[in-house]
Amino acid sequence: MKVDFKTKKAKISGHCRYGSRFFKNYGFMFRTFIVLLIAFFALQCSRTPHTDSETKSIELIQIDTVLIEQGAQLFGKFYEHMRISQNGSYWLFNERIRNQVFVFNSDGSFHSAIGKRGRGPDEILTISSFDINKNNEVAIFDGSQRMLKIFTLDGRLISSNIILEYADFSLVPHYLRWYKGQLAGTIIDLESRFEPYKSRLLALINDDGSTDTAFGKFDPFSKQDNRETFVSLLAIDEENNVAYTNLQSSPYFQIYDMEHFERILYGGKITESFNKPSQEVTPQTSLSEIMLLVEDTSVFAHIFLTDEYFIQHMQILTKEWFDTSDYTAKENVLVFYDRETNEFIKEIKLEGITPLAAQKGKIYAVENFNPDQFTIGIYEISTNTE
Amino acid sequence: MKLVQILSRSIIVVWLIFFSGCVKDKYAPYYEKTGNEWEQYIYEISDKKKVTLNNTVLLVLTSSECSPSIDEIKSWDTFNENSDSIKVQMVILEKYFTTIQVLLEYEDIGLHVYRDSAYSLIKTDLLPNTPMKVYFDNEGKVKNLSPIGVSNDPLKFIHGS
Q1: ipTM, two decimals
Q2: Is B80 found in the same domain as B149?
Q3: pTM for the whole thing?
Q4: Which residues have CB under 8 Å from A111's CB, separation 6+?
Q5: Distance (Å) from the C-alpha of residue B3 to the closest C-alpha of chain A?
Q6: Residues B125, B47: one domain?
Q7: Which of A19, A24, A76, B31 is disulfide-compatible with B99, CB 3.0–4.6 A?
Q8: Which residue of chain A is at minimal alpha-carbon distance from B108?
Q9: Cβ A287–B106 below 8 Å, yes or no?
Q10: Do both B57 and B28 map to the same domain?
Q11: Using one digit for the tens of pLDDT, what is the confidence trace for A38-81?
């Protein structure tokens, strides 16, 4: 018997008589269909994103080691952040002691130091974020003064503006990125600071410091995580107008269309090395308790984009790290996803190196944190399709 | 009307006393630490040199503290230059010597520094966190302790006000 569902549907809505006949004839099938439909949508809502692929094998092959030279201006300690100019010629680091952005040539020789501690026009109180654009202009967000300062690579001030004066959100530190003449950053809405999962996620800021727009959704994983983390990492592919974000404590990532401010994907999976605290860590938890609770848990320190891969840099907070505060005591893991299919490929545990940046198929990682022998290793991502 | 004023002032005073009590309780275990325990810690981190901490203010911090802490350390540096009776020294938790050297040179700080390269302070439990300052009296007992970066007045801290 042929069933014309279109016709039947029209009759059901118009005439109950035919509706009852329909249920008599096809009720079981219809109910099953509805149940399956509801189950499908329920699964869609509750599922955690999970993609997997084992078709690619990835290796990191060291191709160079560069010693960062102490120049006329000694550096003492760098934050674990590095930005690379678009042509790869300049490497930038945020110096913790002098509160300056240090610029080096790619051979490790000193180029310049940008800013200095203070409240003057070309001075900075706290470098919360920094980034370099294709014109080699360096944007620095001074979180203490809530100012956006833009410099040339030689340290000459281009502009200095108050930022987020009337904004209803805060920028999270470290992840301000140039995007087509504007700056994009991850945010937390002020009214959602106790319920971050209700917050928007991204903002676009003009170079004069005014807010263009805020959009996106916080990672819902923050509801089930036992840490109160507000920091979402950010990486932008300017050419393809997409932004990747990753809550620091979450194994999942989001992809946003930067032209239409829409989410394209919520993806990722819990990989073997991922571990969250078994009990809740709150601001009221004492420091010693926090150290016990988060020992051997993982956080995401960076996310990187290459043409082929989206890469999460996961760090395991070992007991030795808490005992010594030695950067090298943290375990480092890279989690690779295919950018075309968004499928998980593999995670790679690193031995004795801390990745800071990626560009053009290469990972840049610290091999030695001692300021007298500060060394960056360059590793090529080698792919074999099995 | 006067009664209401007196009453509200009394409430404020009671609250202040209550909260000052809370602050003292928070650090109470660290006032119990003896001068000997501190001297042993300094002995361990300073190539086994014996030190006495009588009439000493120790500023204990990591190498990358924020601006308010640096400002306060500078005022302690000035105090130390002008003080005959109380000496001021620093303990910096830092693995690398050059990092401390850059800090002292860049910020123009002349205080004597003990480097805790293994972060052993954390294991000793002599302080709840950093940055903190500790004043040892003329008998080497912990007389006052409080966070660094809150006040830039050394005399206030020494006199416990």
Answers
A1: 0.75
A2: yes
A3: 0.81
A4: A90, A103, A104, A105, A153
A5: 38
A6: yes
A7: A76
A8: A98
A9: no
A10: no
A11: 444 444 443 444 445 556 789 999 999 999 999 878 899 898 89
